[in-house]
Automatic annotation (TrEMBL):
GO terms for molecular function: metallopeptidase activity. This is M6 family metalloprotease domain-containing protein. Coiled coil: none annotated. It holds the Pfam family Peptidase_M6. PANTHER family: PEPTIDASE M6-LIKE DOMAIN-CONTAINING PROTEIN, SECRETED PROTEIN-RELATED. The keyword Protease applies.
Length: 681
């Protein structure tokens, strides 16, 4: 039911929020009875999961104990969002669209029963966000230092108000909505937190002064709340760090609306010890959430494996992936080339054959090499990263290569361009739209993903692995050779690349029935290619049947039951052909003289049924399928939603034109229990 869920999500994008990803490191927790357990947290504000070391999903009870969560059959994940939160504009910002002097309001917020651990919260947060060279608690600079290093020509000021104390405990504001099965949780009362905090802060803050563009709303508001956050502590009732937009909610303070906002916690859970101690959070999460205000989208897998788990940018390379947690959140990385592009702080150099390139670190020059493809909106970005400054904790250096797709290419259920406007950039593993191209595809450590990197990869071309090609398989027409990194400068040469890439099919699989068979294969590269097929009965002396496929699957039709077949498959290139693979299969025998359609008693939303009829004993001139009265022209049908479906197949016999109709009723619903689930499958 992935496509249904995704359509529902797209309909609700006006009411979504953005969030920071959970940290990659495990946390150690002492249970109320003294037992120590290790937990792993994954997800963000809308998709969260806590697992034990043995892989069991855990949840925290009201008594404070973490226990295995109630197991449910995996169902369709409906991406419901809190109606009161809407996302910031997910479009590329530019330096020109932002004011030169950027100013934001920060409010420290404590709760009933939870105070700040620092004596003077206002001074603590002001210094962490604004002081040059901030070094308290292991810091390596302030948020102001970070953003001004990444966005030359802009100044950043983060005004911190006096702390306010809310009327309820944090568990009220951070309580998760778990009322509906398979609906992703969110903090139910976050709006109450924001409204109450702003109302209290208005006694000493002129909110109108933070509407610098005169649009009637505060430019940006951030709240630091006392205690821990859910992303790092695993506490269901804690608040998850996030960003959002409250423009439509009508929260007015001093005559201006509250619009874009972000929030995070005072304490970091990444260093949480078994005694429950913690240290003040670094600037990483704040910078991630503020990055959304600057126009940056999340680059981690925001649907957490719904379309396969994406590798994204290996976490550490981008503030908008897991880089906000580098050095326990104290040293987020420099903007990567994709971040720079969105923020409008990038200097492109288009790749041209016959050019010798010498790059200084992109963090200093802002310079990025762009390689275009034949597909508008699809291109490569190349940058030079070193382990200096804000990149001290990326754990590798060299040329980082990003394959960016903002085109109309289909990427899962939607186009690549739509993924950029719905914060799903890297949420489909088979087609990441901001894909880090690993120099060494089998990389086990981040140091191996760079060119030349620890793996010593000195060339990038269409014929290599990885391949410099578009998603449709078309070579870029150039190649990079002699890639070298001396620690201060990256050099390489750009040359023409006229190599034709010939592919070999592998992982071939044939599923055969009585009168048809399905062949599927892989080729190791994305894209659309031409494949030639030949097939015939193995003992036949006649010419084989020849056909062409443009995807990595093919259906053989008109086969005879209980017959051995042989087929061959090869890639058709522009000037020559790839290696030929020969396969054999045997069709099923007839099981009775009566035609029938084999179906299960029950299907689940998202299941696929193949349009196959068995026991056809005489030639037919046509086979027509109808589902609920609608003609189906495909070989497969996907049950998109629950309900009762009427399936009909009409056979027209060649001998006399007579027809025969077979009708079946199919129930599509969620399994009642695991036993029934197993029986139906």
């Amino acid at each position: 039911m992935r496509s249904i869920c995704l359509i529902f999500f797209l309909l609700l994008t006006a009411s979504t929020a953005l969030a920071v990803k959970a940290p990659p490191a495990p946390i150690t927790v002492r249970q109320p009875d003294g037992k120590v357990i290790t937990l792993y947290i994954s997800g963000d504000e809308f998709a969260r999961r806590i697992v034990a070391a043995d892989g069991r999903t855990m949840e925290k009870g009201r008594d404070g104990f973490f226990r295995p969560a109630q197991e449910r059959r995996p169902g369709p994940v409906v991406l419901r969002r809190q109606s009161s939160l809407s996302k910031p504009a997910l479009k590329s910002a530019s330096a020109a669209s932002l004011p030169t002097d950027i100013r934001a309001l920060v409010i420290p917020v404590s709760f009933e029963g939870t105070d700040f651990s620092v004596e003077d919260p206002a001074t603590h947060f002001y210094e962490m966000l604004n002081s040059p060279g901030y070094s308290a608690n292991g810091g390596t600079g302030s948020a102001k230092d970070y953003f001004e290093a990444n966005m030359p020509g802009h100044t950043f000021t983060f005004d911190v108000s006096q702390p306010v104390r809310l009327s309820r405990p944090y568990s009220y504001y951070g309580e998760n909505d778990i009322s509906t099965p398979h609906v992703i949780n969110y903090d139910m009362h976050l709006n109450d937190l924001i409204q109450e905090a702003c109302t209290l802060a208005a006694a000493s803050v002129d909110f109108q002064s933070y509407d610098t563009n005169g649009d009637g709303q505060v430019d940006y508001l951030f709240l630091f709340f006392a205690g821990y956050n859910e992303a790092e502590s695993g506490d269901n009732d804690a608040i998850w760090p996030q960003s959002g937009n409250l423009s439509s909610e009508g929260i007015r303070i001093n005559g201006v609306r509250i619009g874009l906002f972000g929030c995070s916690s005072e304490l970091s859970g990444s260093d949480l010890g078994i005694e429950g101690g913690g240290i003040p959070s670094g600037i990483g999460t704040f910078c991630h959430e503020f990055g959304h205000y600057l126009g940056l989208v999340d680059l981690y897998d925001t649907d957490y494996g719904n379309g396969g788990m994406s590798s994204c940018l290996w976490g550490r390379l981008s503030l908008m992936d897991e880089g906000s947690y580098n050095n326990s959140g104290r040293t987020p990385p420099y903007f990567c080339a994709i971040d720079r592009e969105q923020a409008g702080v990038i200097s492109y150099r288009d790749a041209e054959a016959g050019t010798d390139i010498s790059l200084s670190p992109t963090c200093l020059s802002g310079e990025v090499i762009r390689i275009s493809t034949a597909t508008p909106g699809e291109y490569y970005l190349l940058e030079y990263r070193t382990q200096n400054g804000w990149d001290a904790y990326i754990e590798g250096q060299g040329m980082a290569v990003y394959h960016v797709d903002r085109s109309d290419n289909v990427a899962g259920d939607i186009t690549a361009s739509v993924r950029w406007t719905t914060n799903l950039v890297n949420a489909y593993a088979m087609h990441q739209c901001a894909d880090l191209v690993e120099a060494y595809p089998q990389a086990s450590h981040i140091s191996q993903i760079f060119f030349p990197g620890q793996a010593g990869i000195t060339e990038f071309s269409a014929a290599g692995s990885p391949a410099l090609i578009a998603w449709d398989g078309t070579p870029a027409g150039i190649k990079l050779t002699g890639i070298s990194d001396n620690g201060e400068t990256l050099t390489f040469r750009i040359e023409e690349d006229n190599t034709e890439v010939l592919l070999s099919p592998f992982s071939c699989h044939i599923e055969a029935w009585q009168n048809r068979a399905l062949l599927e294969w892989r080729c190791g590269r994305p894209g659309t290619y031409t494949w030639a097929l030949e097939w015939m009965p193995e003992e036949s002396t006649q010419e084989p049947i020849r056909d062409t496929a443009y995807s990595q699957s093919y259906t053989f039709k008109g086969l005879s039951p209980n017959t051995d077949y042989v087929c061959s498959l090869h890639h058709v290139g522009s000037h020559s052909n790839g290696d030929t693979v020969t396969l054999r299969f045997t069709t099923d025998a007839l099981s009775s003289p009566y035609p029938y359609v084999q179906l299960r008693r029950r299907y689940f939303p998202g299941d696929t049924v193949r349009m196959i009829i068995n026991n056809i004993t005489e030639p037919v001139s046509s086979v027509k399928w109808h589902i609920d009265g609608s003609l189906i022209n495909s070989d497969i049908y996907v049950f998109r939603q629950e309900g009762t479906y009427r399936m009909e197949v009409t056979l027209e016999y060649s001998s006399d034109g007579s027809t025969e109709t077979i009708s079946r009723t199919v129930t599509v619903s969620e399994a009642i229990n695991e036993k029934e689930d197993e029986q139906n499958r």
